[in-house]
Amino acid sequence: MTTTYTHKSGIISLDGNGIVYYRATADEMNDISDLKAILDLMETATKGNPLLIMMLLNEHQFLMTKEARNFFNEYEKAKELIRAEAVVTNSLSNGILYSLLDRLHQPVFPFKSFTNEDEAVKWLLSQR
User: Fold this and answer.
1) Which of 57, 70, 87, 91 is 20 to 30 Å from 30 by CA-CA measure?
2) What is d(CA 106, CA 100) in angstroms, rounded to the nearest whole number?
3) Which residue has the higher pLDDT, 110 or 101?
């Protein structure tokens, strides 16, 4: 049985490969306190183990304030826990947008966008 955690804009769950899934359920704007809460829920899901994060954004986007995007790259807990993050979108144009955001904000962990979940899983597992 998979344990799930709910946040205002998504559902968090852990799969058998150790990947933490975040399935967006609303186009809500996330601020710094939201990012901290989401990371805390992911940490709980993995019992404090390093995170391989799969963001499933097929139906909704994961929106962040500018302050939240800038904060997350400096947040020590995120630097310590996150090993890699994959974003799966429903279109090539959204994938390009996330790739552009990756270049602009240069996360301190590997980050890549995909339109195919299986490819994203393979890439994430290679980042262990």
Assistant:
1) 91
2) 10
3) 110
